[in-house]
Design brief:
single chain, alpha+beta, 25% strand
């Protein structure tokens, strides 16, 4: 399988860390670690060159050329897709994106 390079913005990593910290604060350490690993594994799935993803339905993000994919229906991954790389720009709750 041919893969693209993946670049993750600092704000995305911080968003994931905040979610993991919240889960840890509830006393579920193993779940927090597994959750963040699952998110990064999902990012790896986006790197397949054979797949192409749709532009965001949110008009502002679509005009900027961003593509969106839902993660477990709760979060939306916003990224830029080129032939050689995937640049993950946002990891936001789906409620915050206007469809």
């Amino acid at each position: 399988m041919v893969k693209r390079k993946i670049v993750i913005h600092r704000s995305v990593a911080e968003s994931i860390a905040k979610i993991a910290w919240f889960i840890e604060s509830k006393g579920i350490l193993a779940t927090a670690e597994r959750y963040s690993e699952d998110i990064y594994n999902f990012f790896e799935l986006l790197t397949d060159r054979k797949k192409s993803y749709p532009f965001c339905r949110d008009s502002k993000r679509a005009l900027l050329g961003y593509k969106c994919v839902s993660y477990k229906r709760k979060y939306t991954v916003v990224f830029i897709q080129t032939d050689s790389e995937i640049i993950v720009c946002e990891f936001v709750p789906s409620k915050l994106i206007r469809w």
